[in-house]
Amino acid sequence: MKWFIVVVFNTFPGDVYIFHQPSFDDRKTCLVTLWESRDAVLQKLIEEYGKPMPIEAVNCLSEEVIKKVIENAMADSVNNT
User: Fold this and answer.
1) Domain hosting residue 44, numbered range
2) Which residues are CB-contacts of 27 (< 8 A; sequence separation ≥ 6)?
């Protein structure tokens, strides 16, 4: 199972950024890398969005959990249209 760094922004409707690279073999390694590379993570987000974004949460999530969250969000989107 792969693990990824995921950032949730304090925006409406709660934008999410998933770092596809690097991926990790376990949560502990992901969290250690996240902590040690936090400045690089913030810099990458500024590069992507062109400005600092209001961050609500940062965590390491498994590929399984990310897929479930996306599937649920898509189902909610379809049901609300």
Assistant:
1) 3-79
2) 3, 60, 62
How does strand 3-9 pair with strand 16-24? Answer: antiparallel
Burial of 52 (0-12, 13-18, 19+ CB in 10 A): exposed
pTM, 2 dp: 0.87
Contacts 24+ apart (CB under 8 A), 23-27: 24/60, 25/1, 27/3, 27/60, 27/62
For residue 72, which of 64, 2, 62, 17 has the smallest C-alpha distance?
Answer: 64
Q: Assign 62 to helix, strand or coil.
A: strand
Q: 28-59: per-residue pLDDT in tens?
A: 999 999 999 999 999 999 999 999 999 999 99
Number of compact structural domains in the chain:
1
